[in-house]
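User: Sequence recovery, please. Input:
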């Protein structure tokens, strides 16, 4: 493997904060350079130069936004997008709950329009449709948009921008509800997105987003959720400020379990917002108590990541020294951040199993570990399994019960490295 610099035209560096446009930015965590976390490699490409991009996390002293400044061109990042959201049953269930809650709290009536931005294969729209709403998805991934449309969930294969918003209003009327799950943190120009949302929203409509929550990232030491696609790591405070800058008011916020801990944030136009629920002030108090507006908080986090690196490397090295064989479980994007940050490669992990046929037969970016089907665990059992898809640790431990009964031990990397003995649980 040879590391290559970013190809010309694929990388841009912001000189100001994404939310407040201030310039009081401090680098608080450096994980790079790293390859793109979803750029899995074919065997025949392993010897070719592999582009590495800076992966540094910055803190804005003005509005408190934790963010990447280096923005990789989306067409490079999403060229080989390998994630279809309905493959995860837990996520399907999460989306059903979201649709039901939104319908109840926001007065979504049969015939109302629900628009989902970054709708993927229609995992959320399906549930809005079941509730009688008219639904429209917007997702730039053409193959996935076509798949959803074929299943009766009309999806436009384009970016959600002002032109798209105007076309929606012209063809479908304004939306009662606009949702964006795991989209907002991926967007560089959040201001343009919010202007487009306002253009497509009914005067009394609601805009609902889900974003991974910074407090959970810090508490669970989820440094591996940092990769180039995730441009912002939101707390509530910068979001409230951002919405206000666009005439929107956060009226409700809830902590939800997806992706290790996320925020579900509902906003409305300022004139239609009414009194926000108590949860908004409660979470702002929590964030003040946790010193999220202080740079020192993130510097302490960076030290904790270093400590975890030392501990996991020591743990794995000790297992290897005892002659034990180690495999990985799950090849999510975050697993690649972990492996590349900690310098764990083929010298430690013989293979990684993953259920996605799209990843099987490929190799992990940067570390070049082969990704194989889960059946490999039976055919060629390891002594230890490092669980890289830690958000599914419970189901994975259950699934490995037969192997664990035969003495295979599991290792969890977060919040701190630990071995789960054959009888133990997550
Ligand atoms: Zn800022």
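Assistant: Recovered sequence (426 residues):
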């Amino acid at each position: 493997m040879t590391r290559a610099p970013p190809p010309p035209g694929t990388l841009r560096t912001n000189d100001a904060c994404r939310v407040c446009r201030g310039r009081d930015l401090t680098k608080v965590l450096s994980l790079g350079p790293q390859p793109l976390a979803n750029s899995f490699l074919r065997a025949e490409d392993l010897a070719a130069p592999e582009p590495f991009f800076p992966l540094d996390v910055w803190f804005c002293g003005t509005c408190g936004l934790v963010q990447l400044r280096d923005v990789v061109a989306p067409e490079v990042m999403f060229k080989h997008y390998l994630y279809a959201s309905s493959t995860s049953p837990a996520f399907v269930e999460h989306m059903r709950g979201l649709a039901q809650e939104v319908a109840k709290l926001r007065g979504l009536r049969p015939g109302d329009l629900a628009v989902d931005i970054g709708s993927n294969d229609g995992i959320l729209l399906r549930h809005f449709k079941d509730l009688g709403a008219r639904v429209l998805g917007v997702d730039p991934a053409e193959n996935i948009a076509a798949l959803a449309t074929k299943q009766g969930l009309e999806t436009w294969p384009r970016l959600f921008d002002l032109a798209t918003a105007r076309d929606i209003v012209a063809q479908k009327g304004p939306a009662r509800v606009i949702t964006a799950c795991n989209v907002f943190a991926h967007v560089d120009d959040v201001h343009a997105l919010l202007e487009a949302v306002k253009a497509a929203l009914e005067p009394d409509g609601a805009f609902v987003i889900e974003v991974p929550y910074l407090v959970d990232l810090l508490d669970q030491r989820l440094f591996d959720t940092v990769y180039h696609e995730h441009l912002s790591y939101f707390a509530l405070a910068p979001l409230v400020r951002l919405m206000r800058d666009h005439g929107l008011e956060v009226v409700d916020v809830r902590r939800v379990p997806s992706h290790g801990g996320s925020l579900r944030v509902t906003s409305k136009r300022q004139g239609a917002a009414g009194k926000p629920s108590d949860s908004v002030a409660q979470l702002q108090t929590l964030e003040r108590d946790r010193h999220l507006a202080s740079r020192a908080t993130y510097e302490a986090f960076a030290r904790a990541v270093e400590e975890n690196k030392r501990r996991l490397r020591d743990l794995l090295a000790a297992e290897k020294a005892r002659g034990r064989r180690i495999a990985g479980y799950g090849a999510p994007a975050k697993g690649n951040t972990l492996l590349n940050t900690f310098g764990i490669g083929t010298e430690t992990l013989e293979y990684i199993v993953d259920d996605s046929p799209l990843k099987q037969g490929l190799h992990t970016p940067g570390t070049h570990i082969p990704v194989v089907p889960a059946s490999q665990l039976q055919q060629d059992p390891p002594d230890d399994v490092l669980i890289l898809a830690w958000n599914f640790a419970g189901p994975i431990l259950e699934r490995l019960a037969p192997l664990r009964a035969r003495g295979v031990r599991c290792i969890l990397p977060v919040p701190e490295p630990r071995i789960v003995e054959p009888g133990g649980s997550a």
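Residues 260 and 391 are 6 Å apart (CA to CA).
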